[in-house]
Amino acid sequence: MIKKLSIFLVAVLAVASSITAQPIERSGSAQFAPRKGQWQVNLVLGRGLFFPVENSNYLLPPVISSEDIGLPDGETPNGSGSPAVWFRIGSLNNNSITNMVGFQGKYFLTNRIEINGMFTMDIGVQPQQHYLDGVDDMYGNPYLAGSKYVTGRLTNDWLATLGSNYYLNNCNGRIFPYVGLLGGFQHARIQTTMPYTGEIFGDHGNVHDNVWAEEIYAFARAGEVFGITGALTAGIEYNLLPGLNIAFEVRPFSYMYTIGKMYSEGLSWNANLHSFKFFALPQFKVGFRF
Question: Structural domain boundaries of the chain?
Fold first, then answer.
């Protein structure tokens, strides 16, 4: 009995010594742990990171060149709308996981430290089209219909981020928590050109009192908004298979400085905004490591 107990104790000590002899750089299974020199591509889903430019007309000055410049929905006739409303990133109530933010690339400098970056851009070009007058017959009745004008429009919206994360030790071979820093810059711009409109203001019966719209409308208008951000990041990565993982990430703290500008017929207007967010901008990621 004593001999069997001794053999059992020796075996336990041997196993314990072999476990303690393992490298402690990373707990868990080595087949799932990231390694120095590896790359990873993430599909980023969740809350949008762009300025609200689906309808970017809010960045444009009024089409009437003599009207005051400012953001819409001011509290008083001479007041501008709030930059805190119009320059807000994403929506607190719209965090759909089906919203694709973009692709993120990672490179592991060591077994624990990686650098990451993301760049995405959206450009839209709408050529202008002049108004074409219709044709009347000899009796003054419309014979050929006219063609309405189309305002020329150029929009672009782009985002760039650069960050680094540190992967922490854990006791699960598939789960890897991480913390890090992130910096970014983004920009949105819209500019328009007014074509020939064929519109006349005034007493049409007296040609001397008529004013062509081109004398009232602003020929060229533009607006832009850009922001600089810095943030702390924290996330948990779960490895489904070697080389395939999913992750959930949030920003415990982020700061963004935003500037908006409008331009019209030599005039300019600008406003700025400071934003502080805590535990915001949740994201879901699907990653491929190789």
Answer: 37-289
To the nearest whole number, what is the mean pLDDT of the chain?
81
| Residue 134 predicted with pLDDT over 70 | yes
> Which of 16-25, 97-106, 221-230 shows the lowest mean pLDDT across its residues?
16-25
Give the span between the Cα atoms of 205 and 212, in whole angstroms: 14
Selection from 68, 71, 97 nearest residue 82 by Cα: 71
Dist CA 162 CA 107 (whole Å): 12
What pLDDT digit, counting tens, does each position of 37-52 carry?
999 999 998 766 666 6
In angstroms, the CA 117 to CA 181 distance is 12
How many degrees, rounded to 5, is the angle at CA 193 between CA 192 and CA 195? 140
What is the tens place of the pLDDT at every residue in 218-264? 888 999 998 999 999 999 999 999 899 999 999 999 999 999 999 98
Q: CA-to-CA distance for 97 and 47, rounded, in angstroms?
A: 7
Q: With H, G, I as helix, E, B as strand and everything else as coil, classify residue 160.
A: strand
Positive or negative, the Cα torsion across 123, 249, 279, 276? negative
**CA angle at 45 for the pair 95 and 258, rounded to the nearest 5°:** 65
Contact residues for 247 (Cβ-Cβ < 8 A; gap 6+): 42, 235, 236, 237, 238, 284, 285, 287
d(CA 22, CA 24): 6
The whole-number pLDDT of residue 114 equals 96
| One-letter amino acid for residue 119 of the chain | F
**Among candidate residues 146, 155, 239, 227, the one with its CA nearest the CA of residue 190:** 155
Residue 128 vs residues 19, 48, 61, 150: alpha-carbon distances, Å:
73, 30, 18, 5
Beta bridge partners of 223: 190, 262
